[in-house]
Amino acid sequence: MLLLALSVILIALLALLLNRARVPIRHRWRRRQARAMALQLRGKDRLQPPQLLYARLRAMDPLAFEELLLECFERRGHRIVRNRRYTGDGGIDGQVMIEGEIWLIQAKRYANTIRPEHVAAFDALCCAKGRRGLFIHTGRTGPQSRVMAAGSDRVAIVSGRALLSFLTGAPLPDLTVPQLLHSPTCPNRRQI
Q: Is 114 exposed, middle or buried (0-12, 13-18, 19+ CB in 10 A)?
């Protein structure tokens, strides 16, 4: 009887511990991969040629790339909010608090040019949520995507040298460009 009671208590404690560890095993693996990459990029690997760094980033698991960005924000002392799951996240890969304001993050691990439709969709999502956003990607930013982002007062694109600087420990890209100084407006939304 005593053995049965002890085993029930042990199972209850084990269930409690497992329930408290809400991070699924796959998420833990991706976080470990992101932490390892962040340490490498801030260490001696930051001196590698940019082409090699881009190739390494593009070879990462896409979800680990999302975790890498969140890890880099967290290491800088920013408060971040991770999604509970990777799929079905509604286009938001995470959130970060920058200078008292919550920014949405969209991470794309591309080898080719990003599609302007993705930038437009993220802009619409930021508008719907009433937040600004960082569209962070490893691909090339084409002219249509640049025009799309330049016309938005909600979305900033971080890629190329700015992305590598961010990942290797340099300061955040300047997010106080004139187009971002005023509050975001949405064309189909009434302002209060």
A: buried
Token pair listed for 67: 């975790």
Whether residue 49 lies inside any domain: the answer is yes
* DSSP assigned state of 66: H
Residue 148: closest CA among 124, 186, 119: 119
Q: Which of 98, 102, 96 is nearest to 82 (CA)?
A: 96
- The answer to whether the CB of 157 falls within 8 A of the CB of 119 is yes
pLDDT tens per residue across span 77-125: 999 988 776 665 667 889 999 989 999 999 999 888 999 999 999 999 9
Residue 85 belongs to what domain range? 24-181
Q: Is the confidence at residue 52, as pLDDT, over 50?
A: yes
SS3 content of the chain, % helix, strand, coil (to 5): 50, 15, 35
Its pTM stands at: 0.78
Interior/surface letters 5-27, b for 16+ CB within 10 angstroms, e for the rest: eeeeeeeeeeeeeeeeeeeeeeb
Give a yes or no: residue 87 inside a domain: yes
